[in-house]
Amino acid sequence: FGYAVAMSGTGHLVVGAPNDDDKGSAYLYTLNSTSNTWGDEQKIVSSDGAAYDSFGWSVAMSGTGHLLVGAPNDDDKGFNSGSVYAIGVGVSVSLFCCSCKFWMQFLLLT
């Protein structure tokens, strides 16, 4: 937990945990502007996760609610060929996107 960290200008924080549950994950937090505290929003996992993929090795977040999560050891295109997962918010076609505070995967780049 904490291997990679990114923050958006919209009050979202993502923390990569590439060794979580052997597959990896990313944790999303939202800033509560009233109390000025971070709340646990959602745990993100890959749609096709396998052991030792290292999902969450790298993370990036845009200011418009889109998230990229790297999994360098994903084997979809060959041994440790790697993948990037795109996640978004409130977008009908998205990578990982958040719709009504629920983040979902919308694109897998291998």
Short structural description:
The protein is mainly β.
Tally of helical segments? 0
Number of strands: 9
Can you summarize the main beta sheet?
Answer: 5 strands, mixed
The parts where pLDDT drops under 50 for at least 5 residues are 90-102
The whole-angstrom Rg is 13 Å
The portion of residues assigned to helices is under 10%
**What fraction of the residues are assigned to beta strands by DSSP?**
over 45%
Indicate the mean pLDDT.
78
Using the alpha-carbon principal axes, give the shape. Answer: elongated
- Order of helices and strands, N to C? EEEEEEEEE
Distance between the termini: 24 Å
What report would you give on this structure?
By secondary structure, this protein is mostly beta strands. The protein has no helices and 9 strands. Strands 5, 6, 7, 8 and 9 form a 5-stranded mixed sheet that branches. The two termini are 24 Å apart.
Question: Keywords for this structure?
Answer:
five-stranded mixed beta sheet; 49% strand; 110 residues; four-stranded antiparallel beta sheet; 9 strands; mainly beta
Task: Outline the secondary-structure elements.
Layout: E1 4-7, E2 12-17, E3 25-32, E4 37-44, E5 58-61, E6 66-71, E7 83-88, E8 96-99, E9 102-109
Parallel strand pairs: 7-8
Antiparallel strand pairs: 1-2, 2-3, 3-4, 5-6, 6-7, 6-8, 7-9, 8-9
